[in-house]
Amino acid sequence: xxxxxxxxxxxPPLAGCGxxxxxxxxxxxxxxxxxxxxxxxxxxxxxVVRVCAPALRGQRPAGPAESxxxxxxxxxxxxxxxxxxxxxxxxxxxxCATALLAADAFSGLAVxxxxxxxxxxxxxxxxxxxxxxxxxxxxxxxxxxxxxxxxT
Length: 152
Hints:
Blueprint: H1 3-22, H2 30-57, H3 72-102, H4 108-124, H5 130-136
């Protein structure tokens, strides 16, 4: 593991720790709101997308009918990962807040702590490669030879 990949892995959980530390700032502070908003909109999703991105990059997007945009695949892939990051983060925040509401333990700090813990857990997971994803998908798996003595 290189130092660059370690930094990329640790950035979302560290952003969560920064959001938790920002709750010590006075209420209504713009810095507090910015730190919490950035983490809630990007932290958990960035950790999950980092795990799934190699498998997602294996699928090429269908380009436009005209070939006027040579960088379509690169740009659409980046946009897809950005949108996926934001929506996964928002979904994780909603699910976490709902679970805490159901457990009668909801608070803003509790949501941040739970999401930071989940983000740190996702940062520990190694990336899924395209080959591993294809092995898990029964539709792309090569048919196996029938066992000796079987009827098929």
